[in-house]
Amino acid sequence: xxxxxxxxxxxxxxxxxxxxxxxxxxxxxxxxxxxxxxxxxxxxxxxxxxxxxxxxxxxxxxxxxxxxxxxxxxxxxxxxxxxxxxxxxxxxxxxxxxxxxxxxxxxxxxxxxxxxxxxxxxxxxxxxxxxxxxxxxxxxxxxxxxxxxxxxxxxxxxxxxxxxxxxxxxxxxxxxxxxxxxxxxxxxxxxxxxxxxxxxxxxxxxxxxxxxxxxxxxxxxxxxxxxxxxxxxxxxxxxxxxxxxxxxxxxxxxxxxxxxxxxxxxxxxxxxxxxxxxxxxxxxxxxxxxxxxxxxxxxxxxxxxxxxxxxxxxxxxxxxxxxxxxxxxxxxxxxxxxxxxxxxxxxxxxxxxxxxxxxxxxxxx
Length: 365
Ligand code: NAD
Ligand code: IPM
Ligand code: MN
What we know:
The protein has 365 residues and is of the alpha/beta class. The chain folds into 2 domains: 1-102 and 265-365, 3-Layer(aba) Sandwich (Isopropylmalate Dehydrogenase), CATH 3.40.718; 107-254, Isopropylmalate Dehydrogenase (3-Layer(aba) Sandwich). 41% of the residues lie in helices and 18% in strands. The chain is globular. The chain binds nicotinamide-adenine-dinucleotide, 3-isopropylmalic acid and manganese (II) ion.
C-alpha cells in the first residue's frame, strides 16, 4: 500500500512538531510495510510571507489530491493585525470548509504516568477517557453576515438541520463503540440556535435508543469537566463551544501539548495537534511533540485502517512517559527534561521495542 500525505507545518512550533510526527510516521510505515509519499507545502503566516495569502489554490488542490493532510499549527503575533481573510487562521478555516471536515475528534485521555502533572488532582483525573466531538464547518465561525465598522462588530451563529444531524449521528455511532453515552453541550437557555441544535439531537437520538443522551449548558459543562471529568464519554458540541471546551480538556492530559485531533468528512481527512503555534517557545526545541505524534497515530487509525500501528505509537508514547521523560510543559520533580527531538527519538525507540516484543509474543496490546 502507498499513501500520499500533504504536510503543512505552518508557523511557530508547527514545523518542529511536524518534523517529529513525520519521523514517527516513517518508522511506523516501514515496520508495517506501507509506503508514504510526503509533500510539504506552505500554510498560514509562512505562506502569507511568500504569496501574500495564507493558503494558495495550488496548495488546496494538493490537499484534494491527497490521502491525508497533516498540519502543525498556524498563526503568530506578526500577522495579528492583518484583515481577517489574510490572517494565518483563515487558511485553516478555509481548508476545513473546502475539504468538508465537519467532524473534529479530540480525545482527552489521562496517561497514568502524567496523573500528577495536571493542575487537577490525581483522584479527580484517574480513569478519565472522553472525546470532544466538535462540529467544525458551521456555527458562528462561518455564519453570515459578519464584519465590523467603527460603530459595531457582529457574527452570526447559525446551524442547519443537515449540519446538526450528521454530527449528532457521528456522536451516537462513536458512543456505541465506547461508553454508550453522549452529552450534548449547548446554550439552549439563551440561544435559539442552541434550542434548534437540542431538538435535532433529540430527534436523531430516537435512532439510537441503546445510547444514553443528556444535555448540558456550556457554562456548566466547562465547570463539570474540571469537577468530575469521568462523567463524560462523548461530548458533542458546536464549533465555538468545542474550541473552548477542548482546550480545557487538554489540561486533563496534563498539557495542551498532549492533545491530538482528527478532522473527518465524507472524503478527506486532516490531522493536527489541538495546540497552536506557541510563539513563546518556538524555535528552541522545547515544544512537546506528543500531541503531533498522537495525531499521526490517529491518521494511521482513521485514514489507513492501521489500528495496530496506531496502538503501538500510543503505547510508545506511554512508555516514554512511564520512563519519566518529559518536555518542559509536563516536567516534574524526579523526571528527565528532554528536548522535542530527544522525546521523539525516545518514542521511536520504544515503538521499535514494542513492535519487536509483539513479534516475539511477549507484549500484547
Ligand atoms: P497556543 O496553543 O499556541 O499556546 C498556549 C500555551 O500553551 C503557550 O504557553 C504555549 O507555550 C503552550 N503550548 C502549546 N503547545 C505546546 C506544546 N506542544 N508544547 C509545549 N507547550 C505548548 O495558543 P495561543 O498562544 O493562544 O495562540 C498562539 C497562536 O496559535 C495564535 O496565533 C493562535 O491563533 C494560533 N493557534 C493555532 C492553532 C492551530 O493552528 N490549530 C490552534 C490554536 C491557536
Ligand atoms: C483550534 C484553533 C483554531 C480554531 C483557530 C486557529 C482557527 O484554535 O483548532 O482549536 O479556533 O478552530
Ligand atoms: Mn482552539
